[in-house]
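ok so i was messing around last nite and threw this chain in just to see what happens. nothing serious, just curious
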Amino acid sequence: MSFPKPQIELSQLKSNGAQVVPVEQESQGNKDNRDELDLIRLGKRPVLKVTVNHHRSGPVKLILLSPQRNFGFMSILGYSCTILITWEGVLFVLNLTFSLTGPVGTLYGFIIVWAGSASVYSVLSELVSMAPTAGGQYHFVSMLAPRSMQKFLSYITGWLTVCGWQASLASSSYLAASLIQGLVTLTKPEYTPERWHITFILWAVLAFALSINSFVGWLLPQFEVVILVIHFLGFLGVMLPLIVLGPHGSATDVFSRFINGAGWPTHGLSFIVGIIGNVWTFVGVDGAIHMSEEIQNASVVVPRSIMLSTLINGMLGLGIIITLLFCMGNAEDALNTPTGFPFFEIFLQATNSLAGTTVMISICIVMALSAPAGLLAAASRMCWSFSRDRGLPGWRIISRVKCSAQHQFL
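result:
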């Protein structure tokens, strides 16, 4: 598919603070400017400083500098991994997957979802390599849809994506709040959990995510790298105590025992219902797509980060599932825990130490608290991009970007 070249008047660029320099002074960093040139090719105006190189005998050539593209490969890899938090997510949804399908459905359902997610994300990676914009999916639909349905399908996709990211942010914040309340319930038996407590904790989680994105937004790439390190070290900090201290089950129970806990008519139907929990553990890696306009060499870095984060998180998730199933101990006690999270009880049975269990759970809570920060970043960029294309009510206000040396507000 060919895209029309955008018509940009030199006077308009000058009015936006552009500089005109002879073409002989053109920097050799064309590779660094490819991100901005990609946006112009797609008909988008970069919200960054613009330099215009002019040759007297030829057309105007655009060379755009991008000092605000703070994300590199490692930081966006950390961003993708910590939004997915797959091995932590396996623990969070264990109540759903194990109670409906048992060890067999939990293990093999995860492998099936991993393979399916990898196939979906490979397609998205190819698309974002062609069109690295913050709009993501609705822009891809606009590129590929028939001309007669192009605007309608793109508009619907944009609204679905916007709503999906808002819902993901709310649900992840609620999950983090529930984990905190569950830990208090475990460590303080006299505490009586109330639903409104979760609501207040949820607002605190959202306030933390907002502060990371707004007041120290320039530190977001470094924050994601730190969380990536915790993601890896925390995996070892949880898995090794379970293997060393926990009870060990049989391979037969892990690889061949199916439980139809909900009483569905067939094992197949129960498996299909229970697999939803595993699907949740792979949701969100496309957040890197919506950060594309802040990533250096986005057309290359974003696809690589998506596929590598899917591979890494899948391997870590598979490892923690096998470890949990072998070291589960009393499954009934785990499923009936008053905390609402079976892995709390599994940790406690394995370590026989409330302090050790608290440390292991705290690692998971730290990761759960970091996810809303990344989700808010993706959700805000998606809203801004859709507003830039006049898809949301109040787009004139939402699409404004205020930049300074320390902050970037969307």
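not much to say yet. The first helix runs from residue 10 to 15.
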